[in-house]
Amino acid sequence: STLLLVTLGETLQYVRQFEAADSQLAAVGRQDPTQIATWLVGGSNRYLTLGTVSVSEAVAALDRAEALGANVAETRVNIGLRAGDSSVYERGVSGLPEDHVSDGQFTWRPIELGRARWAFISNDTDAQREYATRGAGRIESWLQDNPDDDRAWQELGIARALAGDTAGATAASDRGVELEPFDRDFLRAVRQLAGRVQVLALVGRSDEAFEILDAMVDLPSGDFSTPYLLGSMPLLRPLRSDPRWEPLMERLAEPLPRPAG
Fold first, then answer.
1. Tens digit of pLDDT for each residue in 214-225?
2. Which of 233, 221, 260, 157 is closest to 17 using CA atoms?
3. How far apart are CA 135 and CA 140, in angstroms?
4. What is the per-residue pLDDT for 160?
5. Which ranges of the chain would DSSP assign to H, the alpha helix?
6. Are the CB atoms for 114 and 234 separated by under 8 Å?
7. Is 59 within 8 Å of 49 (Cβ atoms)?
8. How far apart, in Å, are the Cα atoms of 110 and each of 5, 88, 98, 125, 138?
9. How far apart are CA 168 and CA 50, in angstroms?
């Protein structure tokens, strides 16, 4: 398996670098609370990744960042989706243009797909499928000119799954994984697998989803780093009632072993 190309020691080193950077930025904030980056860390990393602060504390941190001139709309959307908080989500969406695309290192996601996610959380199947279909169309247009964009392929898989297109969802997801092998960019490949697990959960292929989760819990990185980060992913809801879910969360919560040397 390509998973074996990455050593546990290398993975743990990455995780601890993230934790160290988070601590250093927090220390900077205590010395100079006007630093925007510090408040962004307080509002996003500590809630989205670690779950160590409440939604209200995370939002307060983002309010400080926004008051200092930062654009935190996307982060509000992400927190709203993770927390299932409509007021936080809608405030974030209101700060984004109607044709907005989240275009980052690991993501190419049109705003319609975010709305489809919220409809899924709200159990509004009609809105979910409508927004997902519109989002899929925008992603497909992008892929016509950018056929090797692995980020967009995985998002297309999620969009099609939310739209009810099982075959199209898995085909798109397969393509995203093929385009980003572990031996080229580990963290990006991990993000691809996170998207893949969501697609599998949505289309009812839970055995395959848990096969990936079992492997990645032993190499905790990216979306598989903490129980909170993985457990609060809204599209994994179909897996949470499975008897394999809680033991998985318990394994992920175990202290990381220290690599030798």
1. 887 776 555 566
2. 221
3. 9
4. 98
5. 8-31, 36-40, 55-67, 73-83, 86-94, 111-121, 125-145, 150-163, 166-179, 186-202, 206-217, 227-231, 245-253
6. no
7. no
8. 33, 19, 9, 19, 7
9. 34
